C-alpha cells in the first residue's frame, strides 16, 4: 500500500485523482486495525475508485488525563492489513505537521457535543470534528465511512457536513463484534482476561434491553433496569451512562412510542478501560 505522510503530498495526490474523474472513498482511523475498520474499507470500496485510509492518533481528541501515550500502535501490521483489505493509499500524517505551533482555529460541536460522551470528555468532539474537517480537506473524499460503534461521533460528523456544507457523503457502517458479542475496539487489548470476560455484559445488556422492547415494554426505566442487570458489576466498574434515546437527537426518552425506533447507548469503564456500545431497535406496534 502506498503511504503518504506529507499534507501537501496528499493534497496533490487527491487533486490528481479528482482531475481524472475518479471517486475517492475515505476511512478515517486511529490505527491498530481490526475487522471493524476493515468493514468500513469494504463499504468505501463499493462506492469509490480509490480508497484512502487515514491513520492518525489525533492528540486533540484526548484529554490530558486520557490514554494518548499508551493508545495501541502497530504501523507495520496496519499497513499489511490495509493492503490486504484493498486500501489504495494510507495517509499517516505527523502530529507536528497537522498541528503546527501557530494552530488555533477549531470546529465547535455545539450542544450535542457536550452530552453523553461529552459529559465525561468535554473537549473530545471538538478535537474529533476539527481533525475530520482537516482530513476531509486533505483527502477530498466523495464518500467517507464511519462506524456506528461511535454513534454520537457519526451523528456529529453528519451534522458538521450539513451545517458547514462539506461536499461529502457520510456513510455509517454497522458495529462489528467478537463472536461473544463484545464490540471490536482497539482499546479491547487493554482488558485483562478477567475484565475481557466480564466486558460481554455490555452487549448482553443491549440484548436484554432489546428483548424487553420487542416484548412490548414501553417504560424506559424498566428497559434500563433490564440493561443494568446484565452490565458488569464490582468495585472496578463505573457505568458512565445508559441512555435510551431517539436516534435523531439523542434526547433521553421516558416512554417509548410504537412504530418508532430508539437507540440504546452505553459507556462503562471496566478497570482502566472505557468501553462504549449501542444498538438501534424498532419499537413494535
Ligand atoms: P478508531 O480507530 O477507533 O478511531 O475508529 C475508526 C473508525 O472505525 C470509526 O468510524 C469507528 O466508529 C469505526 N469502528 C471502530 N470500531 C468499530 C466496530 N467494532 N465496528 C464498526 N466500526 C468500528
Could you give the topology of this structure?
Layout: E1 2-4, H1 7-19, E2 24-29, H2 35-46, E3 50-55, H3 75-85, E4 89-91, H4 95-98, H5 117-120, H6 124-139, E5 143-147, H7 151-163, E6 169-173, H8 193-198, H9 201-214, H10 220-230, E7 237-245, E8 261-270, E9 273-282
Helix pairs in contact: 6-7, 9-10
The chain binds adenosine monophosphate.
Number of strands: 9
Proportion in β-strands = 15-25%
Judging from the principal axes of the Cα atoms, what is the shape?
globular
Q: Counting H and I runs of at least 4 residues, what is the number of helices?
A: 10
Poorly predicted ranges (pLDDT <50, ≥5 residues)?
A: none
Oligomer: single chain
Spatial strand order of the main sheet: 1-4-3-2-5-6
Overall residue-averaged pLDDT value: 98
N- to C-terminal separation?
50 Å
**Radius of gyration computed on alpha carbons:** 19 Å
Give the proportion of residues in helices: 25-40%
Largest sheet: 6 strands, parallel
Q: Structural class, from secondary structure content?
A: alpha/beta
Bound molecules: adenosine monophosphate
Q: Helices and strands, in N-to-C order?
A: EHEHEHEHHHEHEHHHEEE
What does this structure look like?
The chain has 285 residues and is α/β, with parallel strands linked by helices. The protein contains 10 helices and 9 strands. The strands form 2 sheets. It has a 6-stranded parallel β-sheet with strand order 1-4-3-2-5-6, sandwiched between helices. Strands 7-8-9 form a 3-stranded antiparallel β-sheet, with helices on one face. Helix 6 packs across helix 7 and helix 9 runs antiparallel to helix 10. The model has no long low-confidence stretch (mean pLDDT 98). It binds adenosine monophosphate.
Amino acid at each position: 500500500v502506498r503511504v503518504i505522510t506529507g499534507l501537501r503530498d496528499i493534497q496533490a495526490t487527491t487533486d490528481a485523482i479528482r482531475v481524472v474523474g475518479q471517486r475517492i472513498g475515505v476511512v478515517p482511523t486511529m490505527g491498530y486495525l481490526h475487522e471493524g475498520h476493515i468493514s468500513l474499507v469494504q463499504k468505501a470500496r463499493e462506492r469509490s475508485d480509490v480508497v484512502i485510509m487515514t491513520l492518525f492518533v489525533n492528540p486533540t481528541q484526548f484529554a490530558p488525563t486520557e490514554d494518548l501515550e499508551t493508545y495501541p500502535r502497530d504501523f507495520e501490521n496496519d499497513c499489511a492489513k490495509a493492503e490486504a483489505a484493498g486500501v489504495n493509499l494510507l495517509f499517516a500524517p505527523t502530529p507536528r505537521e497537522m498541528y503546527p505551533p501557530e494552530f488555533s482555529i477549531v470546529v465547535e460541536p455545539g450542544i450535542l457535543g457536550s452530552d453523553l460522551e461529552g459529559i465525561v470528555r468535554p473537549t473530545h468532539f471538538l478535537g474529533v470534528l476539527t481533525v475530520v474537517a482537516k482530513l476531509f480537506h486533505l483527502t477530498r473524499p466523495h464518500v467517507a465511512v464511519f462506524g456506528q460503534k461511535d454513534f454520537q461521533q457519526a451523528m456529529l460528523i453528519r451534522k458538521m457536513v450539513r451545517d458547514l456544507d462539506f461536499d461529502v457523503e457520510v456513510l455509517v457502517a454497522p458495529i462489528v463484534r467478537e463472536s461473544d458479542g463484545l464490540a471490536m475496539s482497539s482499546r479491547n487489548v487493554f482488558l485483562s482476561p478477567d475484565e475481557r470476560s466480564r466486558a460481554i455484559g455490555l452487549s448482553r445488556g443491549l440484548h436484554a434491553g432489546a428483548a424487553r422492547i420487542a416484548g412490548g415494554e414501553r417504560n424506559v426505566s424498566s428497559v434500563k433496569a433490564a440493561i443494568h442487570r446484565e452490565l458488569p458489576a464490582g468495585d472496578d466498574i463505573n457505568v458512565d451512562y445508559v441512555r435510551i434515546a431517539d436516534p435523531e437527537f439523542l434526547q433521553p426518552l421516558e416512554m417509548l412510542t410504537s412504530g418508532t425506533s430508539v437507540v440504546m447507548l452505553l459507556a462503562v469503564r471496566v478497570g482502566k478501560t472505557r468501553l462504549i456500545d449501542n444498538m438501534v431497535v424498532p419499537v413494535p406496534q
